[in-house]
Design brief:
The chain is α/β, with parallel strands linked by helices. The chain contains 13 helices and eight strands.
Length: 309
């Protein structure tokens, strides 16, 4: 695929449209229906699900990066940096915008020069290896309820659209909106189209898709764990927070939104760690990163470590 019009405009006239808008438009334009349910019985309603810590435990891009590291796509130093951000995310339970931007942008830059087909094939393998068993059953059930009602169900994530499509397909969902990387003749250039599909960009993507699909947003639902997704949640008539961070939980309570939390024991364990203080938290996160390093270096037949899962 040659560079899209949105990609050319992102580089040529960044002052005319925000990068978030361009990212949202690109995500909607790249969205493909993955499910066999091409004409749902309720065509004006849909549900939009964030992925990280909403549909799946942990960060999609971290799991993808770790799998690609094992296939020699990048270095130990890169994976340790990702491990630190993952440990921080899991311990504190809040997506720090700076961490998100650095982790995901750097994780997407390494694909420059690689064929799109190669990433798609490896993403299939990595989903089976490390992602399939991390899906939250409770959130999966929520998505199925919408499917049973004849509604479209879309994933909305800052992860690359290629892995997002695979997750949607494996879960039997309608499709996915994800970060779009520019490609020329089927090879990645290493640049993003607009920006990461994060925060306001998710709302832009949902709005663009709704226009394309003829959806009535007042009849749509959205699910997320992160306060950063407030623009997307506020766009629909039925917002619901899942495994929410502290700010989002408080906002949801004030607004009377539905709240679902499937973490239970994991949440209690995190509170114990937080009580240990900032120094203990930093040490634990560093230890998690080192555990990842040891794990990726050992043979597949070796003992399985779970400290960084």
């Amino acid at each position: 695929m040659t560079p899209s019009r949105a990609a050319r405009r992102a580089r040529a006239v960044p002052d005319l449209r925000s990068r978030s808008t361009l990212a949202g438009e690109a995500a909607a334009a790249a969205a493909e229906v993955e499910s066999s349910l091409l004409t749902p019985p309720d065509p004006e309603a849909a549900a939009f699900f964030d992925v990280d810590n909403t549909v799946m435990q942990g960060a999609t891009i971290f799991h993808l990066a770790r799998g690609l590291y094992r296939r020699s796509f990048f270095t130990t130093r890169d994976i340790l940096a990702a491990a630190w951000k993952q440990a921080y995310f899991r311990l504190v339970g809040v997506e720090d915008p700076e961490h998100v931007a650095k982790a995901r942008a750097s994780a997407l830059a390494f694909i420059e020069g690689h064929p799109v087909a190669e990433l798609e094939q490896l993403s299939e393998e990595i989903f089976d290896e490390v992602m399939a068993h991390r899906i939250w059953p409770g959130t999966r059930a929520l998505a199925q309820l919408h499917l049973d009602q004849g509604q479209q169900v879309w994933l909305v994530t800052a992860a690359p659209v290629e892995i997002a499509r695979i997750i949607a397909r494996r879960l039997g969902l309608t499709g996915a909106l994800g970060t779009v990387s520019e490609q020329v003749d089927g090879v990645y250039t290493g640049r993003l189209v607009g920006d990461l599909l994060h925060g306001p960009a998710k709302a832009e993507a949902v709005a663009a898709l709704a226009e394309r699909e003829g959806l009535d947003l007042s009849r749509c639902s959205a699910y997320s764990d992160s306060y950063n997704d407030l623009p997307m949640l506020s766009l629909v008539g039925d917002p619901c927070v899942v495994n929410p961070d502290g700010r989002l939980r408080e906002h949801a309570r004030r607004q009377g939104w539905r709240i679902r939390d499937y973490r239970t024991g994991r949440k209690a364990a995190r509170l114990v760690l937080l009580a240990a203080g900032l120094t203990g938290a930093a040490s634990g996160a560093a230890g998690a990163a080192l555990a990842v390093r040891r794990r990726v270096a050992q043979p597949k037949t070796g003992p399985r470590r779970t400290s960084s899962e």
